[in-house]
Amino acid sequence: MNSNNLKKLISILVLAVTFTACVQDDDFNTPGLVIEEPTFPANSTFVQIGGILGDLAQAQNDDGPEAKVTFEVENQYLEGYVVSSDKAGNFFEELVIQNSPTTPTAGLRVLIDVNPLFTSYEFGRKVYIDLEGLSIGTENGVATLGVLSSDEVDQIPSFSQEDIILRSAEMAVITPLEITFEDFSDDLTNLYVKINNLQFNRNDVLGDDPLTFAGEPSDDFDGERNIESCDNGATAVLSTSTFADFKSLTLPTQQGSFEGVLTKNFFGDTFNLVLNNPTGLVFDNENRCDPDVLECTGTSGGANVVFAEDFTGVSISDLENSGWLNVNTTGGTLDFVVGSFSGNQYAQITGFSSGENPFEVWLVTPEIDLTASTAEELSFDIQANFDNGNILTAFITDNFTGDVTTTEWSQLDASIPTGPSGTFGSFEGVGPINISCVDGNVRIAFRYAGADPGPTTRYHIDNLEISGN
């Protein structure tokens, strides 16, 4: 190194040391960004989310559900409060806004070709959106604002983001709207909600291999987990993106509350709950609300088949004539049928497009005599399809009254598999379930209880068998 370069290096080091000695550490902190309230042209008008949702409803009443509304008035601004956050990766290139920080009545999804958004539009930030040239329609089942492209509402371009979506200086405290699963409706989508007394199904979280939010090999784009109410056993779907930074966390085993956004799945046919981050689950109650299930402690398993039904070569009428019961207790027409695929037959049911809300349908076996056998156990196969909630439960009784609603049933500890939300699943074995402590003439029953709209998972039941000695 020559002498001139050496002198320069020494001078730089001296200056650096001198500067560091004269400046305290906290003077290097980035100064807080002061956001000023935006100014608007004198002729500006301001509209509410409920108002443009009303415009959309009128257009869809006149022209059908695919109708869109495009706004052409200059200096017309929509007001709203941000209730989504993409900081944890569970939202992507979209904002969810609602009309009020407390007791909201209307919400909207806004598509923007920008990532991330939380650095500009924080949770609770009030925003103004210049509506000129934007369009509103229903996409993925929820009201969506953006730019019209090929008759679909698409993203606001990144280069116009700051001109279209203006930040207010107001940062509101968002109070979640407390609801229940039974309250789910299109009017509540895109709102920040709270639901109390929830837990994940015991079969998903209490075993040796508990589920993660969205880190399973079968999770494609989103992990969908059934979450159940401790008040009435109803279920809903918690959806988590496979890009979320908490996707590999295991689901909590306790019960508690959910805070997040009510929306719908990609197909727009099922309500979904979406977290901004995992702190939206406050599961701090160690006392779970699991149902009492039959617990037989004796030895089970034997080589003799006591009862079997694989539904091959039969119709539902054949089953009913042989003593099976197929009962809709809610007065509708939905019932079990015998379905088939690739030569395989099975009992099948789906509430999709039934219009029955709620529905409860029972499929009950004929009497099965267990007096001459011991160590009995039950097994069957289940295929869950287009899964939007775990709504199938298995029971047993040794004292059937002839009426499923007056019979005293014992719930079986049957782990009903979950399936994909948008297609058919695969048959999975359930059991063997130890039923050795039940004697005499017994019946096995499957109860299918949900609602349309609501949980309508399609189930196929096959290879029902009781074995023993």
Automatic annotation (TrEMBL):
Pfam name, any one: DUF5689
Query: Is Signal included in the keywords of this UniProt record?
Result: yes
What the entry lists under PROSITE patterns is as follows: PROKAR_LIPOPROTEIN
Q: Which UniProt keywords are given for this protein, alphabetically ordered?
A: Signal
Signal peptide start and end residues: 1-23
- Where does the DUF5689 domain lie? 70-278
Descriptive protein name:
DUF5689 domain-containing protein
Q: What is the lineage of its organism?
A: Bacteria, Pseudomonadati, Bacteroidota, Flavobacteriia, Flavobacteriales
